[in-house]
Write the structure tokens for this entry.
Amino acid sequence: MVERDGALIMVDDERMPLKPGEKPEVKSVRFRTLGCYPLTGAVESSANTLPEVIQEMLLTTSSERQGRVIDHDSAASMEKKKQEGYF
Amino acid sequence: MTIRSAPLTHLQRLEAEAIHVMREVVGECDKPVMLYSIGKDSSVMLHLAMKAFHPARPPFPLLHVDTTWKFREMISFRDETARRLGIELLVHTNPEGIERGIGPFTHGSAVHTDVMKTQGLKQALDQYGFDAAFGGARRDEEKSRAKERIFSFRTAQHRWDPKRQRPELWKLYNARKHKGESLRVFPLSNWTELDIWQYIHQSRSPSCRCTSPRRGPWSSATARSSWWTTNACR
């Protein structure tokens, strides 16, 4: 995993260029949402079972798509994308 | 004599609503498809589709718009799921995007998402002539999704106009389309993220004919979903 622009990104293949100073580390993480790996931030998590995932969800104060880089392009960016035909 | 049935739990109500929506679309539309994006919501949606048409297979294929930048584990899980359930899986990648070498690092996330996801999806819907596409979007995910109807109409160019949406009173859905229009349908609209995980948890309980849980790979949400789906959808 590397931390980039505040998101925890998984280096899933060799196509991801590392920036100077970035050193991938092994971390225990979970993805609350899944998309393209360079655009999907993980959350640190030690949950190993479904009840633990649910427990984490009950206590979290962050939103599910906060790790989605594409949601932060601009204000109302999802609405613009949806108008153009995005899901 | 009155027969009193136990009141439905909130998850059973959500499940019934989603199954009703799916059957309604199959009854009203000519060529539906289910968008399958491999995450937990897609897994639940697919599980509900298996239930909705059991013992038959769901009468529509799955469609994945592959940007070529998904997690590798997602792709193997996708193929394994389609094989295991015996459902036709269509995979579409925007050929123009491949030709232009579009990627998130070289072109930025906005261009990448537009070309590989939005344009790719529109191409695939046009190519196969689907008139309705199920998606696993939920209202609690994001504010523009929050105001979208369960039956969301798109123009012939696939555009959504949030100011021109049909009322959905009670459980009545109007699926009549104007010429060229298509539908995006969201059976999980009223589910929350927590409902999804609780449903996944509950669905693999022994009362649901599901096999006992077993440890699988746990590195991502896909793995968790795959572990569940493997056990729940048999």
Q: What stands out?
A: The interface with chain B takes residues 10, 12-13, 15-17, 29-40, 42, 48, 50-51, 53-54, 57-58, 64-65, 69-71, 73, 76, 78-79, 81-87 of chain A (CB under 8 Å). Residues 50-59 of chain A form the longest helix (10 residues).
